[in-house]
Amino acid sequence: MGIELKQQGSKLQGLSALRAQYEPQIPPALKGGNVKVSKGDNTTAADPSDRLAVSRAYPHTYGQPLVHLVSEDKAAKHSTLRIGVAFCGRQSPGGHNVITGLFDALKSQNADSVLIGFVGGTEGIFAQKTVELTNDHLKDFRNQGGYDLLGRTKDQIKSSQQVNDAKAACEALKLDALVLIGGTGTNTDAAQLAESFLESGCTTKVIGVPVTIDGDLKNQFVETDVGFDTTCKVYSQLISNICTDALSAEKYYYFIRLMGRQASHVSLECALQSQANMVLLGEEVANSKMTLFDVTMQICDAIQARGEQGKNHGVVLLPEGLIESIPEFYALLQEINGLLKQDEDIDVNNISSRLTPWAAALYDFLPIFIKKQLLLDRESDGSVQLSQIETEKLLAQLVDTEMTRRTKAGLYKGKKFNAICHFFGYQARGSLPSNFDCNYAYTLGQTAYYLAQAGLTGYLATVANLKQDVSEWRCGGAPLTAMMSVKRWLRGPGVSQIGKPAVHRTKVDLKGKPYELLTQKASSWLMDDLYRNPGPIQYAGAGADLKTITLLAEDNDYIGKVQELCAYLDKVKEIVKPGCPGEVLKAALCSMASVTEILTVMSAPSFRGRTPF
Amino acid sequence: MGIELKQQGSKLQGLSALRAQYEPQIPPALKGGNVKVSKGDNTTAADPSDRLAVSRAYPHTYGQPLVHLVSEDKAAKHSTLRIGVAFCGRQSPGGHNVITGLFDALKSQNADSVLIGFVGGTEGIFAQKTVELTNDHLKDFRNQGGYDLLGRTKDQIKSSQQVNDAKAACEALKLDALVLIGGTGTNTDAAQLAESFLESGCTTKVIGVPVTIDGDLKNQFVETDVGFDTTCKVYSQLISNICTDALSAEKYYYFIRLMGRQASHVSLECALQSQANMVLLGEEVANSKMTLFDVTMQICDAIQARGEQGKNHGVVLLPEGLIESIPEFYALLQEINGLLKQDEDIDVNNISSRLTPWAAALYDFLPIFIKKQLLLDRESDGSVQLSQIETEKLLAQLVDTEMTRRTKAGLYKGKKFNAICHFFGYQARGSLPSNFDCNYAYTLGQTAYYLAQAGLTGYLATVANLKQDVSEWRCGGAPLTAMMSVKRWLRGPGVSQIGKPAVHRTKVDLKGKPYELLTQKASSWLMDDLYRNPGPIQYAGAGADLKTITLLAEDNDYIGKVQELCAYLDKVKEIVKPGCPGEVLKAALCSMASVTEILTVMSAPSFRGRTPF
Question: Could you tell me which residue ranges the Phosphofructokinase domain spans (chains A, B) (predicted)?
Fold first, then answer.
């Protein structure tokens, strides 16, 4: 069913109109338009203990090779392709540019090729609500925020009915490829569709593109996600404004909860950008098994220490996932999730008796607004609606109670604690994307086209070496199965012990460079108000091409290193060619035996530490 | 007591550092540094019926002339001056530039002149907490947001004890002038200090500068306030992001409350910038005497009409002052204010019995969170803490109830109403100021210096013709008494019937051009989602010098028109010089008699309409 796209009634104005004229930068490999997809080594799942499970679940798509895009001298005429595209995850700045990049590459290679947009995301796929995209549709959406070109609905293609509907759509529309735009959930779906389509003889290829503000689709192949850069910059601007406000009025503590789902990448980046007084990363709390009481005391101790220096203001950042990271809350939420699955008749009044005594004790202790929020409808993936749980208000209230107690007991002599709470979420998702996100998304869109054109399926479009200039970016594709793992340690009634293989959200690495930057500075930022204001996103002039601190700090370019290693191996082969001196061969043999031994030990399942989240 | 300024520990980084290097633009009159203060006509109070009251309360400062700054050819050496400066109002982007402008003008005229900053605003004045400002202090605060150079405390210099403390400070510090930075309250205080100082023989002159995000210190002499431009731009960026989000997900209604105190200028500007679906201006609601029920129904009718077009999303803007504009709320708040003044033992449980039956009925109807918020401590001027009253949640809840009722009654067939509530306040006040605010504030700071240097007191520094390029701006000063009026119609127990003369907040003019722009477009914006995204504030490139729509739409330049009128009068005199033909004299006489008659009627107190707010 081809439908009319809703007209964006207004012509773009002002900065939006200017941005629509911006030409995204692309790396050299894509520039000439003569692009070859070159195959590299075959892949495996990162964790050896998951390899069997992943290969069994994905027999057709497991183990495919990495691929790289390289420019070719000779032009090859591309055959006519029909490609479908849908926004499956949540709004993330830059999403539109994936589509414009895909469109421009497709049309530049063959003007008869067709890009079909699914209107309303996954539900648009199931219902075959489509529109054939033209330059006219796209012109007002180039470099613009939001997903309003096509809209979106739910995040999941999960049931076999939905998989069948998607297949029927691809077949009815004669799609050569389907490109799905989203985060971990969407890309797990993409892998599942690719596998099912191969299994059932459907010829449509499936390609995923990493787009999520949460920044948690992150692994050896993916350095960051489209939208993370913009969103963190918008939040950081606001946090910094509030830091300045706090320092000017010197009477409030601001508790700011930040969007970002279960992982705390957004909060970490915003802390590094704004240098706010305190950030409580979910990963830290989970790792040190801090209770709600511990978290409260940690904040109170900080307020007391600042009070002793005459400082009665401050800014505390909280990731929305914090609440799930507090062990007793995690347990409570798992129990509630289980009960909600079994029975819809749960409410604030009757739930306590159905919980374990430990969970019930915590639930009964909570203020009524949190009690209600914990029982709200679940997300489509069954998880809690983190955006709706006002953790910042809960903590502000607990801290207030404790500071009052300390004051009465004569332990705290500073001014009365005054909190102002904020949740920064929706006000960044629709932002005009930064130059970085415009370029990255557009490059990914073009890359997705070339992967589809090469007949690959079950791949994620990737761009490596992002912290360097665009001229050094490297485009390619990585099999989604190579990013999969299997979650264990799920708990609570109604939850299975071992999950299916999936592309999971990557948490903040507590051994990583960005977190190290934070811990080095945390105590001076806490006490000395070294606030930093990155200001609003700039599109021209100095600062317009700044990247996130997280991206710049991280030791990325996994693929570059794989290539470097291959060069070493080739060099060894070259040196020890038959005819080489015996002692050289002996030295090579001895060294390689040692390397192999070390790597074997390091790669054994028992060697690898794991955390329950 | 000279004190050490707290060190801003961090050197500025990134965009903040770049901004510190920005050189604000100033109009030609200030450029050479040879500036003359030229006196114009004497002034009067705008409303004839207030003239007697104002002239009695301000016998020494009433009726002073307008003054204009003009550049002179010859340089005059300025004597050494000691000037004090304080942030008295709330944080507003650009406040620091008033100080840097003042400092640069003062030092350029005489390097021995001294600028003394009061640390902690009004309380710093009373306690004589001072710091002699140097270029070293200022360099990290040039073109930066916040008030953290000096900080601030309360908004008021009110009691005679406080006036005496301020006088003692000015005398002890041998100040030639005191410059107060703030909005209507601060500038009423400035007028009061100027009058009291003259009365008691204190030689310190007092100059005010119009700085408030609320944009409500606005009259014939003041076209806009420092900070309004930046704040509206930050809010509009976020509102537009949310509009984009709403249009992408198509499932939420966003209720966004905006800071701006009793007047709705901020909400009006943000509505014009973002073209959100709906804005409820306090002035409209008050003018049409809409009840809480009416407001709720108006929103519900809009949601229903949109639902019938298949639209289940939208963005509704609410000024924080809305609640005071609803007549029954206004009456309730006045009663509560009266009770709080008389008796501190009021709480949620015992208040109903002390209210009139009408007020009690409304109070009892409200949800508990609003009940509590209505009883919070009052502002220093006795008004409600509007920032703490979650009107957006109250309305979302009432709308939800009504939409559920309509659904059950079969009147509404759209998707379930889902609201997400936001309050945008503190996240803009500390923003890096826009180029406009940097230039305007810096120009005002320089102007304040020249007014002080000319020995004027009880004046507000003004810059006219702001909608034109800086090269056409005109600097001057207007007596604060000329902006004063007397509020009548206060009500409730413990409130006097007639207030003192004061510089009052100017409400949105429902006959003005900006409001007309809104009403022309309101119905298409409501139904057609013509959202506009102005994007983040830019400092370089196209769009960096955009001004607010309000400023551009308004018919400003009152002072220019006064000058134009004077030119007409002079021309008439010129034409009818003795010796002119009799019929020319006769025509002039006849025309002037008619003009005079019309103006006399128009200026009579009975002619001027008044609203009770």
Answer: 82-449
The pTM assigned to this predicted structure is 0.87
What totals of helices (H) and strands (E) does chain A contain, helices first? 23, 15
Query: In this structure, are residues A363 and A332 in contact, taking their beta carbons and an 8 Å threshold?
Result: yes
d(C-alpha A116, C-alpha A131), whole Å: 6
Say whether A243 and B275 touch across the interface (CB within 8 A).
Answer: no
Q: What is the dihedral of CA B585, B586, B591, B595, to 10 degrees?
A: 80
pLDDT (average), residues B452-457? 97
Bigger pLDDT: A182 vs B337:
A182
Q: Would you say A394 and A266 are in contact if contact means Cβ atoms under 8 Å apart?
A: no
What are the pLDDT digits (tens) for A442-479? 999 999 999 999 999 999 999 999 999 999 999 999 99
CA distance A535 to B145: 10
Neighbours of B607 (CB within 10 A): 10
B489 inside 8 A of chain A by CB: no
Contact B245 A533 (CB under 8 A): no
In chain A, whose CA is at the least distance from the CA of B13?
A532
Would the annotation count B154 as a binding residue? yes
B295: amino acid identity, one letter: V
Question: Residues B31, B32, B37, CA angle at the centre, nearest 5°?
Answer: 85
For chain B, the structural domain boundaries read: 35-224+433-487, 228-322+390-427+509-553, 558-602
Task: Tell whether B261 is in a known binding site.
Answer: yes
| CATH entry, A35-224+433-487, from 3.40.50.300, 3.40.190.10, 3.40.50.450, 3.30.450.40 | 3.40.50.450
Pick from B384, B352, B350: which is nearest to B366 by CA? B352
Strands B459-464 and A501-502 turn out to be unpaired
In chain B, residues with a C-beta closer than 8 Å to the C-beta of A430 are 240-245, 248, 533
CB contact under 8 A, A244 and B145: yes
Q: Which residues of A are catalytic?
A: 214
Q: How confident is the model over A288-334, as pLDDT tens digits?
A: 999 999 999 999 999 999 999 999 999 999 999 999 999 899 989 98
Within an 8 Å CB–CB cutoff, is residue A111 touching chain B? no
Of B8, B234, B541, the CB nearest to A541: B541
Q: Is B427 on the interface with A (CB under 8 A)?
A: yes
Considering Cα of B150, then B152, then B156, then B161, what sign does the dihedral take? negative
Cβ(B505)–Cβ(B262) under 8 Å? yes
B228-322+390-427+509-553 — its CATH code? 3.40.50.460
Rg (alpha carbons) of chain B, rounded to whole number: 26
Confidence tier at A344 by pLDDT (50, 70, 90): low
Q: B508: which DSSP letter? A: P
Q: Most A CBs within 10 Å: which of B313, B426, B524, as the mutation test of the A interface?
A: B426
Count residue pairs from A and B with Cβ separation < 8 A: 203
Cβ–Cβ under 8 Å, residues B36 and B69: yes
